Amino acid sequence: MKSQSSNSELEKLKPHMIVQVIQYMPNAVVSKTILKRITGNVTLSSFDVGEELPEKLSPYDTFVQIIDGQAEVIIDEKKFTLKLGEGMIIPSHALHQFHANEQFKMIATVIKSGYED
User: CA nearest 82: which of 107, 103, 65?
Assistant: First the structure.
């Protein structure tokens, strides 16, 4: 698996067709930072078919929304299939990972309030 990231934020005060901001790359997961602050971030990712991200924990709740295709998400060993337009909150401290049984793009939003449960 190749992984490629871009940390340059999107231009402010300009409309963006979010699904077109990031492209698919063969055999890769590509990520682009939409907005990054001390209090949280918004990241756009594309997954080629067969790709996955390693299982991880986050100390913060994470909201993910599928903006193209569909994704398999495993949270604390429970499988979910998120389809185009669907979103889900991944609870803080939950082991989770993403699998691409087909290409998909998603937006992930993390809010770091400092008052997590």
Answer: 65
C-alpha pair distances (Å), 24 with each of 13, 73, 81: 26, 19, 20
Domain covering 2-10+20-111 in this structure, CATH number: 2.60.120.10
Mean pLDDT per 10-residue interval, the chain, length 117 residues: 68 87 96 92 96 93 97 97 97 96 97 69
Q: Tell me the H-state helices in 1-117.
A: 18-21
Q: What residues are paired with 88 via a beta bridge?
A: 64
Residue 13 DSSP label = T
- Point out which residues pair with 81 in neighbouring strands: 72
At residue 4, the pLDDT reads 62
For the whole model, what pTM was predicted?
0.88
Q: What is residue 117's three-state secondary structure?
A: coil
